[in-house]
Amino acid sequence: MSGNEIVTDVVVIGGGPVGLFSVFELGLLDLKCHVIDILDRPGGQCAELYPEKPIYDIPGFPVVTGQELTDNLLKQIAPFNAEFHYNRMVNSVEKQADGTFRLVTDADETFIAKVVVIAAGGGSFQPKRPPVEGIEAFEGKSVYYAVRKMDDFRDQDVVIVGGGDSALDWTLNLQPIARSLTLVHRRDAFKAAPASVNRMKELVMEGKINFLLGQVSKLDGENGQINHVHLTMDAGDLSIPATRLLPFFGLTMKLGPVADWGLDLNDNLIVVDTEKFETSVPGIFAIGDINHYPGKLKLILSGFHEAALMAQAAKKIVSPDERVIFQYTTSSTKLQKKLGVA
Amino acid sequence: MKIHVTDQAGVEHELEGLEGWRVMEVIRDWGLNIKAECGGACSCATCHVYVAPEWFDKVGARSDDEEDLLDTVGDVKPTSRLSCQILMSDELDGLKVTLAASAAQ
Ligand SMILES: Cc1cc2nc3c(=O)[nH]c(=O)nc-3n(C[C@H](O)[C@H](O)[C@H](O)COP(=O)(O)OP(=O)(O)OC[C@H]3O[C@@H](n4cnc5c(N)ncnc54)[C@H](O)[C@@H]3O)c2cc1C
Ligand code: FES
């Protein structure tokens, strides 16, 4: 059990555009939010998959990039001081006897909330697994997709695969402690900071690391421990001794633990009503790309609308006795005070 | 116009291609195993196919963006392409592609 327990009105699972905007709608109704995301920053698909691509169908913005939209949403919700918890995945959500919900993350924290808003979009971002047969058997034991503890790589024969910033950064960081380090990439061009690429090339010249042009095709080993990595190369196949493999191929979206929370699903999407966007469990709402109802459109715009309606229903759960009067932000001084503009 | 798609299990399918559609869209519309996570925005590489060698020159060249994205899959071959970056046209009638393992859902 963890010693860390956070009690709040609402936990929002997912810091994508829809999760972020829900903080605004909930904030206008005085509900305090904690937002949890497995990524290390907000924005969901907008920030991860297309930060620099223009979006043309956000009302009032003829054009805005994924990152600009995220930045603007953060500015818009700033008055409500939501607390953000990044780099953690919500593993479980359970209704307790007193009607509140208990959420546990993979960082072993517990959140107690009166309302849960699932804004998990296309699912949780997880590392792309290279298409190498049997790789699952080695994962977490000798094949890793992230470096959590540097010490796991000390005095090991490390093979890093990839040509982006993560691959280059970890090549530079692990070189001093690894017994040997080989960087493998399919071509001689890198999509990483030029300074890291130059430093890597220096280390190759100094004979401190190896660089090979190729792709991983097969792994040898037993009981979860690899001992050789086979590479397919233009020059022919090669097998190199290795005790640790770190493939850095970016992220892909998987539904993840959401599937196990006992909610009614339709083809991996959470079924909701269209009045409140509540799931089959009262008090748990699902908004944005993750939900399903007749006519659903997976658009940011739709998620924003769903957030507004959800917030009204969430308010009734958190404060059942309070009368909520519908107000406009343009004319209500009360709302403007909350936003810090009146 | 037709395209011939071999899926990850080695089964060949003849699909009706539509002028102006992306090859990815045709494959997805047909229900074959293609993730196409980003919907064709050249952002995910989960629409990876191998173009039959005799068609490779006809489908045009990879863009820099596409090249960078192909770095994020582990099964690139000389004839690899992202199928969302190939637009169907009369010249591609009869195109043959094979779905890569990394395109699977
Ligand atoms: C290339 C591309 C272009 C697009 N263009 C447009 C466009 O022009 N217009 C438009 O309206 N839409 C567009 N979309 C779709 C749009 O991005 C989505 O509709 C939108 O991102 C959905 O927002 P969301 O907040 O519901 O989910 P997401 O953006 O998917 O965010 C969900 C977040 O939840 C997190 N999460 C999931 N599960 C967990 C868990 N268990 N624990 C912790 N965190 C979790 C994820 O890490 C993620 O950050 C585009 C999408 C792509 C990929
Ligand atoms: S569908 Fe995402 S790159 Fe082609």
Automatic annotation (TrEMBL), chain A:
<keyword id="KW-0560">Oxidoreductase</keyword>
<feature type="binding site">
    <location>
        <position position="37"/>
    </location>
    <ligand>
        <name>FAD</name>
    </ligand>
</feature>
<dbReference type="GO" id="GO:0050660">
    <property type="term" value="F:flavin adenine dinucleotide binding"/>
</dbReference>
<comment type="similarity">
    <text>Belongs to the ferredoxin--NADP reductase type 2 family.</text>
</comment>
<protein>
    <recommendedName>
        <fullName>Ferredoxin--NADP reductase</fullName>
        <ecNumber>1.18.1.2</ecNumber>
    </recommendedName>
</protein>
<dbReference type="GO" id="GO:0004324">
    <property type="term" value="F:ferredoxin-NADP+ reductase activity"/>
</dbReference>
<feature type="binding site">
    <location>
        <position position="125"/>
    </location>
    <ligand>
        <name>FAD</name>
    </ligand>
</feature>
<feature type="binding site">
    <location>
        <position position="330"/>
    </location>
    <ligand>
        <name>FAD</name>
    </ligand>
</feature>
<dbReference type="Pfam" id="PF07992">
    <property type="entry name" value="Pyr_redox_2"/>
</dbReference>
<keyword id="KW-0285">Flavoprotein</keyword>
<feature type="binding site">
    <location>
        <position position="45"/>
    </location>
    <ligand>
        <name>FAD</name>
    </ligand>
</feature>
<dbReference type="GO" id="GO:0050661">
    <property type="term" value="F:NADP binding"/>
</dbReference>
<feature type="binding site">
    <location>
        <position position="50"/>
    </location>
    <ligand>
        <name>FAD</name>
    </ligand>
</feature>
<keyword id="KW-0521">NADP</keyword>
<comment type="subunit">
    <text>Homodimer.</text>
</comment>
<dbReference type="InterPro" id="IPR036188">
    <property type="entry name" value="FAD/NAD-bd_sf"/>
</dbReference>
<dbReference type="InterPro" id="IPR050097">
    <property type="entry name" value="Ferredoxin-NADP_redctase_2"/>
</dbReference>
<keyword id="KW-0274">FAD</keyword>
<dbReference type="InterPro" id="IPR022890">
    <property type="entry name" value="Fd--NADP_Rdtase_type_2"/>
</dbReference>
<feature type="binding site">
    <location>
        <position position="90"/>
    </location>
    <ligand>
        <name>FAD</name>
    </ligand>
</feature>
<feature type="binding site">
    <location>
        <position position="289"/>
    </location>
    <ligand>
        <name>FAD</name>
    </ligand>
</feature>
<dbReference type="InterPro" id="IPR023753">
    <property type="entry name" value="FAD/NAD-binding_dom"/>
</dbReference>
TrEMBL record, chain B:
<dbReference type="InterPro" id="IPR001041">
    <property type="entry name" value="2Fe-2S_ferredoxin-type"/>
</dbReference>
<dbReference type="GO" id="GO:0009055">
    <property type="term" value="F:electron transfer activity"/>
</dbReference>
<keyword id="KW-0411">Iron-sulfur</keyword>
<dbReference type="InterPro" id="IPR036010">
    <property type="entry name" value="2Fe-2S_ferredoxin-like_sf"/>
</dbReference>
<dbReference type="InterPro" id="IPR018298">
    <property type="entry name" value="Adrenodoxin_Fe-S_BS"/>
</dbReference>
<keyword id="KW-0479">Metal-binding</keyword>
<dbReference type="InterPro" id="IPR001055">
    <property type="entry name" value="Adrenodoxin-like"/>
</dbReference>
<dbReference type="Pfam" id="PF00111">
    <property type="entry name" value="Fer2"/>
</dbReference>
<keyword id="KW-0001">2Fe-2S</keyword>
<dbReference type="InterPro" id="IPR012675">
    <property type="entry name" value="Beta-grasp_dom_sf"/>
</dbReference>
<keyword id="KW-0408">Iron</keyword>
<protein>
    <submittedName>
        <fullName>2Fe-2S iron-sulfur cluster binding domain-containing protein</fullName>
    </submittedName>
</protein>
<dbReference type="GO" id="GO:0051537">
    <property type="term" value="F:2 iron, 2 sulfur cluster binding"/>
</dbReference>
<comment type="similarity">
    <text>Belongs to the adrenodoxin/putidaredoxin family.</text>
</comment>
<dbReference type="GO" id="GO:0046872">
    <property type="term" value="F:metal ion binding"/>
</dbReference>
<dbReference type="GO" id="GO:0140647">
    <property type="term" value="P:P450-containing electron transport chain"/>
</dbReference>
